[in-house]
Amino acid sequence: MREHFNTTFWAEVASATATMFLAAITIVWPNWIELVFRFDPDHGNGSLERLVVGVAAAVCLTSLLLARREWQRAGLRPAAARSSA
Asked: How would residue 73 be classed by pLDDT, with cut points 50, 70 and 90?
């Protein structure tokens, strides 16, 4: 099955996974940015964290949609879609 997918598909899956992880970490542990970079750009009001979660969620969703498109191009559709078509 892996041979049906190109590098683009795997890059999109990796991007979706990484940004989903980034959003989840930021939701669960919002002050990680200040601890890692030793800098508080939003001065504690949480706007940077909301921005990180929003951007990460948007990139994750876009990556998932692009990966789905590559999946469909490879001709591998889920079983439910094949039975109804």
From this structure: confident
Torsion of CA 25, 26, 28, 31, to 10 degrees: 120
CB atoms within 10 A of CB 82: 9
- Domain-located, residue 59: yes
- Measuring CA to CA, which residue among 49, 18, 47, 53 is closest to residue 36? 49
* Residue 19 pLDDT: 97
Does residue 63 belong to any structural domain of this protein? yes
Average pLDDT over residues 16-39: 92
Which residue is it, tokens 């001065």? 43
